[in-house]
Specification:
single chain, about 180 residues, mainly alpha, Ferritin, two-stranded parallel ribbon, 6 helices, 2 strands, about 0% strand, elongated, binds fe (ii) ion, ferric iron binding
Length: about 180
Amino acid sequence: MSTFTIPGLSTDDGARVAAVLQERLSAYNDLHLTLKHIHWNVVGPNFIGVHEMIDPQVDLVRGYADDVAERIAALGNSPKGTAGAIEADRSWDDYSVGRDDARAHLAALDLVYTGVITDSRAAIDSVGKIDPITEDMLIGQTAQLEKFQWFVRAHLENSGGNLVHEGSSTELDAADKARKA
Ligand SMILES: [Fe+2]
């Protein structure tokens, strides 16, 4: 426990915000690793489009991890950036799709983004009343994550506004539906 934090916050509130941010840090660290895994494992006719679409998002999410970690430090706490921290903090499983075609990966990735964005919105809600600066940072990050999810979904959407993997609750099921669509 630190003896200092951001001016205007109690050290308890600083620690509360830092704990919320630690979960986002591990989520972002897991996400940029998952994105690279897809970058390496996508195959098939649309390989190059997806392979190249992923890398700018890796850079963006790595930047978000950096911003979140440095905010934790500014709050007077210690950001945990190790593989063990990701494992300890996460409530989800490893990304489950290996070598597969573009739409299969994108359908699975859509579920990944739904999980990350849902948790980020909950984090925005929980820090909002304590620290509007952290809230503002998370809002900006989440807006860009939501934009990228639209990029992902645009590959999976038909003219009627349906997603090919609609109703899937697991990545493998989503990938399977998208592969057959
Ligand atoms: Fe690469």
